[in-house]
Amino acid sequence: MVRLITHNLLACHAKGCTSNNFPLQFKDVAIEIREAEFNPDFLRGFLARLEWGALVDAARQLGDTSLPPEVPDMLDDDFLKSLHHVLLEIHVEEGAMICPNCQHVYAISNGIPNMLLAEHEIG
């Protein structure tokens, strides 16, 4: 399923698409909110692996404006709960992710992104 924790790791890998290929942009999405167990230690540990600006932009594309533009110095429970919600509870069920560089479309169906490329698109 497409959650923002996964989306934050995805880049376009079409042949010749090596720059400006991250983050993929959401288009025509249907989302579902599903509760997940809150684990602040996991969030603190995972935070350093995130591309923060890409995460904030993706959350906003999906209608969530709860994350601040920059990671705060103090990781209090309110911040961690917002981060938890954005990363783990917002599920993109349908729609597409589009490469900002080559405009390749990665369809999302039943919560699963199709990241496969046709043979002529493989680099």
Automatic annotation (TrEMBL):
Gene3D superfamilies named among the record's database cross-references: 2.20.25.10
Gene Ontology molecular function, alphabetical: protein heterodimerization activity
Protein name, entry field: Trm112p-domain-containing protein
Oligomer status and interactors: Interacts with TRM9.
The organism of origin for this protein: Meripilus lineatus
Any one of the GO BP annotations: tRNA methylation
Lineage: superkingdom: Eukaryota
Cited CDD domains: Trm112-like (cd21089)
InterPro entries documented for this protein: Trm112 (IPR039127), Trm112-like (IPR005651)
Record family assignment: Belongs to the TRM112 family.
